[in-house]
Amino acid sequence: MASWIGRIGADNRSRFQWALVTCLLSVAVLVLLNSVERVATDAEKQGVQLMLNQFRSALVVKGAEVMLANDSLEDWQGTNPAELLSPLPANWIGNCPDDGLEKGTWCFHTDEGVVVFTPNWATFARADGEGEETSESLAWRVEPECTGTKTDKKRRATGLKLTRVKEREINHGRDRD
């Protein structure tokens, strides 16, 4: 009888050890997956910031060229800043399609005059560091940068800049009420 009871105790101990190992491995896998997602989100944020910096650098150069030619900077409002880059980025798809945007790609919405990025990760925060985290598309518009306040009559354009546009202000080819 003693050997039979001893065998049951050994079997229970073995089952407990396997259950404990399974629980520990499950927790380790969840922590690992969470870390991978966080790193991927951070990498995407850095990629967006790099692209915005490239756009801004190209706009500084173009703004200087326009001013040296005594042309109007206001004529450049809503233009595609990717046309100033050579070569085009790998995740640039050109004009935004009407049937929806692919995740992780950049495009230009010609009707609205905005550059749009659709993030891969639902927890993607705004690339300019302001506001809440969002999963919606991020958009920017090229606008002239002016000195003075909006009510100042002596305002003059001094360059070109990217201005953040909220998603709800973009139509994407859909009719909205």
Unreliable runs: 172-177
Q: On the 0-100 scale, what is the average pLDDT?
A: 80
The overall strand count is 5
Number of helices: 1
Estimate the helix proportion, in percent: 25-40%
Radius of gyration: 27 Å
Q: How much of the residues is beta strand, in percent?
A: 15-25%
Elements, N to C (H/E): HEEEEE
Main sheet, how many strands, which sense, barrel? 5 strands, mixed
Counting copies of identical and different chains, the oligomeric state is single chain
Specify the overall morphology.
elongated
Distance between the termini: 81 Å
Number of domains: 1
* Secondary structural class: alpha+beta
Q: Write out the strand line-up for the largest beta sheet, numbering strands in chain order.
A: 1-2-3-4-5
